Prior knowledge:
By secondary structure, the protein is mainly alpha-helical. The protein has helices at 3-42, 45-80, 89-95, 101-144, and strands spanning 153-154, 160-161.
Amino acid sequence: MKPAAIIIEDKVDELLACLDEDIRHIERSLSQLNEMRKLVIKRDDIALGKLLQSIQSESDCYKCNELKRQLIRRELANVFGFTVEQMTLSVLEISGPESKRVQIAERKEQLKSMINEYKKEHLGTAMLLSECARFNNLLLKSIFDFRKTEGVCYDSSGTAERESDTAFVNLQF
């Protein structure tokens, strides 16, 4: 093999190791999103605080892998004569060493499917938190807005009840 080919293979191996760490990070993130939703529903503030702290510390640690991947990308772009923006996994799959093309394609597809799953889970979590905030706002408004009621109330059969003109809680001292 030529020295340039050896350098390229070594850099591709380093990139594949970074991509494997990216995959593990996404798996952990998916697990953390599921755990976050469970804790929000259970209203376990202590465990939720601990989870958020662990997410923050893991995010700080993950930055090292991100920087390493960007450095390898820059080095591969220089070797192949591309700009950093042009150096993608698809380009590397076509231009890279033939012995690594299958591995690159596998990682690319795995990352693509995991990112789509992560986007879906993230949206679900954001919607849950949005609904919690909306419900809390309605509850607080109904408690503290004297003689004002907004929103529709439903009975156990699902039919709308007439709004009363009284406040939810009597706050006389």
